[in-house]
Amino acid sequence: MTGRPDPATYMTQVAASAQGRAYKDQLLLGLDLRPGLSVLDAGCGPGTDLPAAAELVGPTGRVVGVDHDATMVEAARRRCAGDPQVEVVTGDLHALPLPDGDVDRARADRVLQHVPDPALAVRELARVVRPGGLVALADPDWETLVVDAPDDAGLATSRAFTRWTCDHVVRNASIGRRLSRLADRAGLEVRSVTSHPSVWLDRQAADQVLGLTRNSAAAVEAGHLDAAARDAWLDGLATGPFVAAVMLLVVVAAVPGA
Asked: Which of 127, 204, 215, 232 could cross-link with 211 by S-S, CB 3.0 to 4.6 Å?
């Protein structure tokens, strides 16, 4: 598996995985969605989480999905065609197409790791949520990525792979640990910070999400990894028990002034 997966397929698979469901349940619980509320999903992608939000807010509620990618927006609209309370629009997280205080809740799930200015994006989330409303943020901290290997040489390659992922693959690799600070600086009152380890015991599933094969190939091409060491590392990962893990953090914060 060396090619980059289709983004919509990738997001859907992650959302459906055991690792995805565990923290997403916590994210929804933290938002305290109830019938009649309005909620924004900022960076909604292909809309994998919109139906669950629509079910919780009910027919009297409102769900708004925003994504900068027109292809994702169309996929989300198709997914939610049977939910009239769901609206999906194209927009930039740095300048959300909503007025001040327009929604009761907002969420950004594994989005801030990718945006050019996470602080501005969080301020925008705070702006569009009414006083007393809630904002939920979730992102991994990629510097916590660990991949077991059968020997010291393999473990050294695992550490080099994590460094490559942080320096060259993910734009904001340490965003998970920064979520609480970003929320505070945006004027939000942090209510909770929870950690959720994602653990893979299946190598192929981990390869799909973590890009073990494709990203290590890019690291070899860039001269960050030795080709022979990388091949030996992948061979080692294919034999015996497999373990990889990364920590994801969820922050729930309130807009003051209710």
From this structure: 215
